[in-house]
Design brief:
The chain has 15 helices and 22 strands. It is of the alpha/beta class.
Amino acid sequence: MMTTPCTMPSTPSSDLLIRNAEVYDGSGSPAFRADVALRAGRIAAIAAAGSLQAQPGARLIDAQGLALAPGFIDVHTHDDRQVLDAPAMLPKLTQGVTTVITGNCGISLAPWQATMAPPAPLSLIGTQPDYRYASVADYASSVQDARPAVNVGMLIGHSTLRVNAMRDTQAPATAQEIEAMRALLDEGMRAGALGFSSGLFYKTSSHANNEEVIALVSVAAEHGGIYTSHIRDEYDGVIDALNEACDAGRAARLPVVLSHHKCAGPANWGRSSETLALITERRRTQAVGLDAYPYVAGSTVLDPDYVDGVIRIMVSWSQAHPQMAGRDLSDIAAEWGVDQKEAARRLHPAGAVYFQMREDDVRRVLSYPHTMIGSDGLPHDAHPHPRLWGSFPRVLGHYCREEQLFTLPEAIRRMTSLSADTFGLKQRGRVAVGCWADLVLFDPATVADRASFAQPKQAAAGIVCVLVNGEVALEGGVPAAARHGRVLRRQEERYSPAE
């Protein structure tokens, strides 16, 4: 039985006792049957099944036949506004997710007080009134006031810094503009952000060279942060783009996470063997991780430049023609009597789901032992990609139980301790005495994603109970009235209680 890295509290009395659970502690080790007692939001005791007694007034949960795991950590989200506007966070809570990492792909709500409509891709998470935070500290305070149902770790986005500090984002930053961005990033790191993210693929950042990125990444490194990168090219230039991101991390001496790793477009299908070999080689000399979602389609803004007339594209939202959400671009183009690029122009501004990957690449990336799971869901899309509601149960049900891509302990490790360790959340991601009691009870025999491309807003099956910071957050599919999520500030989370 694994109970490290945290230490046993001096008083093992409990506020809640989970009995007879099959405990998957997040380490990848086999499950063991145990009772788990919670006190003051943390795990107070773990002992053989049937050996712990509930204290007077404590709640008892009988977990017979159920798996107990650390709450899942969604390392790649765009929930920056969702945690404020819909703090019940049902798309994530119903999957067993207890922590979300916001600010990915260079897109974060802070720090920027918008004086114009946000350009793509910042428009994916908010309109001009939503970008109202002069500092990351202001944003964190608003999140804490909203008290979302899940914990929130923050990244600071490169594109957000650029629109804040630059007159023209369609150019490299000047030395003065870089210094302005460094100052904003320094404030955000001091306010508790976990690190810095970039999205060099997007037009708001594509003109930035790696010297600009390194100048910013170095600020995150000074504070012990992390660098996550939506690389410049996931298509034909994927190898050069992976090297560019890794070079930045090596220059600044901080960990790099390669976001939603994929080989996109038919011309690159099958190249995941090549890209994963490169990552393995890089890992010999520097800290490199990656995340992925368990689907063959991605989702982002609908841009005519991304339309090739070959892959299937489904519209997820359109400001000009909202009634087209959920329809294939090819069908819309045929109905309008135009080609797909022209249809995309008419739909703009809009978002889309791109069926740009092949299943063997998805399986190979998911099988890679250093791959974390991140949904990359876009919660404000009218017809979102099903990954928003289904990523984590899809890993457990489809890829683990049905396809046997990995064992259940290993699947859980990819969604818990690996993620917590990578992002410096040392008090989370494990069922261990002294750690925060972010936990999920689920049925391994029935857990499954129900969200589909046709019906994407569907809660998962088999998620029985979710606890956040020791409090029941979801039970029987019903959210609790009170919410207990927290802003996870880097300075407070980076050490385990034993340290």
